[in-house]
Protein 1
Amino acid sequence: MADKGKPAIVAVCGPTAVGKTSLAVELARRFDGEVISADSMQIYRGLDIGTAKATAEEQQGIPHHLLDILDPQQRFSAADFVARAADCIRDLCARGKLPIIAGGTGLYIESLVKGVRFTEETFDPQVRRELERQAEELGAEEMHRRLAAIDPEYAAGLHPNNRGRVLRALELHRQTGRTMTWQREHSLPSSPPYRALLLGLDCSSREFLYSRIDRRVCQMVEDGVLAEAKLVYDNRGSYQTAAQAIGYKEFFPYFEHTASLEECVAQLQQATRRYAKRQLTWFRRMEGMHWLTADGNPLEPACELVRAHLAPEQEEP
């Protein structure tokens, strides 16, 4: 087999609020694994509630990696994630542990399992300044629309407010004539670096998923997300990534006295539902995904898939 000898990993993917953490933790318990977070916001210290970071209780004593590794003013890219996750995988495999990737950032997971090689591009700072100026004048939706016109596949996986990635993709095209989709496809090794099992979680109906999302948002408010959102708002000049993230920016009108708390909560619920739809779009186009129903009993079929994936390397204890 061509993949023989490659590290075996499991990735638990899916939209927000679908139950990825719970499934990943249970798989880690059954197969002697540890969890590597693949979430572009949960890397930040002090931003716990708005990012739906797993609590100590939810982690159930299973080590979680790539949580709380940066301060909110620091930048973090897909290239950074792939490098750090690869280090984690090497360490876990050396200790005989099963690496279980869990998260909803499709770009991170796909780049990792495909072994995307990121290269440093030299760009003209004047082009970036011009794009930044256009973004300020025209708004995020228009910049996202322009990206969709030249690279619809990559744009489909990005929220319009993900300004950094939208502008980087436009910058790449402006400077080189290449799309981000083309760049990623031509940055792949001849063979993936891992034997990856992809487990996708979804709900039996969109209404069921959306009801889970709405309940989670209400729980976030009860748990104190407003304090985190105010911290981000007060530091929005330096917390640039967090200030654009779903979970915080929706409360900015409340702090500016232009919307009620109820209106902001409703806006966050709607934005999160839309984000979940984009996540599903991304994961559904990934090859080799095994889909499980979250509101059924995903654990047992997931265990069967993991058991077959690891055999004869590792048996479930």
Note: The mean pLDDT is 92.
Protein 2
Amino acid sequence: MREHNGGATVSTRGSTMNTPCTTSPIRLLLGAALLSVCAATVAWGQGKIDSKLMLRYGGVLAPDCSNYMLPQLKYLGDSLVVQDGGKAVLTGRNVRAVPTYFGATPPPEFETALTSEVAGGEALVFVLYRNASGVFAAVEGGPKVMAALPAAFKGKRVRHCDPNRNMLPGMAPPVQIGPSDLLKDAKFKRPYVQALGPLAKEPWLMELDGPAQPVEKVRVAGTEYQLVSVCKNHDCYDNSMVLLYAAASQTVYGKVFQRGRSTLVGAPPPPVAAELERLWKATYRSGR
């Protein structure tokens, strides 16, 4: 389905706007300045997450939000990720918001730019726009970054996958469901605990109160699931989990990673097990 908004054609399924990016004469100067500032503040920027920016822009932007194996952009708070085929092809660290990216004359609909650095020091930038159809991003960066960029992002804007973040300012605040919220639903908790088996003795798995992304809908092997990703407080790298919950059948499949050991829970069929592995790597090892 396509909608027409102010003369521009927007694809609501593909979430892609064939809108050329507006350039600014001062862009190169700004880019050089931004790289020098980032280099001087690596220690400060490492791991810093702006909660207000995450609330407004965090999550996934994609041409087709129903299939995570297709190209995606991810703003994860402390990193910008370009993903294709379920794997990260570019990961930028030291994320900073630069609302003056275009100087004194920004293009229409521009809100801010999220700048970052990939390995080697080149810039990876998500330029964010907003209109009546939602939040869109265009990707810019250094020569190697642009060469590695999937074709789906070259010269195009892609739309945010979260309908809450696509709402116009002034509307009701975003309502998100976190992993711990699912535990309040007996229809989820019962099959979840059963799937965990002996792992149910682990407090962090029973509380799901660690660092997590909002629960989102994905389609895997022809079935719609809620995707849950969560890790252990203060020990995220060595203790993490991704989970697929099919509410219609009350089925839970997951991968739990603890101190170097991976465990599949819920006896997922091979195609789902493969998807869980890719989801886990994309979420917790995307920069490696």
Note: Residues 179-284 form a domain with the Inhibitor of vertebrate lysozyme, Ivy fold (CATH 3.40.1420.10).
Protein 3
Amino acid sequence: MNKQLPRATKAAILVEQRQPLVVDEVGLPESLDVGQVLVRVHYSGICGSQLGEIDGVKGEDQFLPHLLGHEGSGTVLAVGPGVLHVAPDDTVVLHWRRGLGIQSATPVYRWNGTALNAGWVTTFNEYAVVSENRCTPVPPNSDLQVATLFGCAATTGFGVVENDARLRIGESIVVLGVGGIGLNVVQAASLVSAYPVIAVDLFDNRLELARQVGATHLINSSNADLGQEIQAILGTSGADVVVDTTGLPEMIQLGLARTKPQGRVVMVGVPGAGSQVGLFSLPLHFGKKL
């Protein structure tokens, strides 16, 4: 690695679940392996799945301690052998989904004299060694704060609508939870001319944002009978699509109950470890999809 390039970085480290992250200096790899890219991270998002990782929602973490973050924006400082799709000085979005280029070996950072685990992309650090296929160039004049959303929230939300729900013009959709991903589900549903687009959340400020990006109906489920409110809008037939971003078993069950006989329920939120979702499975044999 060029001697002018950084040899260390400040990073937020997950040392123990359900405890605050440790911010400390971490040693960067001494050289870039095939397909690796050194990026100066300008902005990072924090996804609900990262919060779940910190809180141990999926159970015990076998890779502690490790770095975090899978959506960000930055500038390429150097590239390793074989890298063709990004170059030094490129402005890039960092993302968790595979893109173009090599999937490299995961980098090995050093912390307190020992190896520190990391995945193909991390963004809770000032400098990151990222796999080429987790970096996508964007125009240099991009708003880099907004660009972080293309790393997860926007692409996940739009992907749910286009690839998982396969929502089409005129179909109805209920979005349970309108945080970062839910808002992008709403926006994508509006862009394909779904109707109605029903946003559900506990907080009025989120519901207002959902209205701004295309929701046609808003339900604050903290002070309403959610099932009755959905039925009042859609009638007894239910929705074509329900997308759950909460991971709460009761919301998943409600989604199944409030979709049409051949409707689709897309689970985006992850239920906590040990959670159980009870369902009547017969409709799944006759066209309903989960």
Note: The radius of gyration is 21 Å.
